[in-house]
Amino acid sequence: MAANNYIKMLGLTAAVAVVDILTLSPAFAGVMIGGGSLETALGVTLLVASAIALIYGSYNWLYKAKIVLTPARIETREDFLAALAPYSRIRALAEDVSLTLEQMERMDKKKATLLKVLQQRFDPVEMSFAKFASVADEVENLFYLNIKSVLNRLVVFDESEYERVMTHKSARYSPKLLQEKTAFYTEYMAYIKNAIGTNEEMLLKLDKLLLEISRLDSIEPGDIEQMPAMLEIDSLIKQTKYYKQ
User: Which stretches are transmembrane (predicted)?
Assistant: First the structure.
């Protein structure tokens, strides 16, 4: 990335120099500062614009600190989207990141559908409504906690090293070390896929809960915890929290 910025700056500098030469050189346009008032104004404007372009380019490409969203700073859905976006361009991670983004969209839709169904079946002040909504919130929070744990792994991912190790093209490692590195990256990718799989389970549990709620004629608040879908969700939440500890 730094090399690309230097190339951009070099290109900008060359472009500014060419424009200035073509405009001010007597061999070309021959605009003279100190000649006529119009020529002077044009020449001064060109030099000022050139200086501004170079200052802006050098600041933006060479000195400006790039803001990086670390997992600890991620709070909103937009933060998650911004944090995941760079990894969608990494070949080894693109499929998993794409699936994660798709899961986020489905979670939004399922949560909205669940709340709509609850509003149709229960009064918002009822305890039943509050219990179902609370479980949906907990599932959503755990869902995004899983994504944050994936991002914690992604920030230390070395694409070039991964490619060398997994294609066994590196001659710098002994067979034993290469085997250990292969095992490390295999476990690394398995963790990411497992977290994505857990989130897929959460989406499925919400589907089951929606189906059960839609079939209800009436239910007592005390019976909610014993609904099959609620029991499955509770088990998944406890299991996931256990592994996160």
Answer: 12-35, 41-63
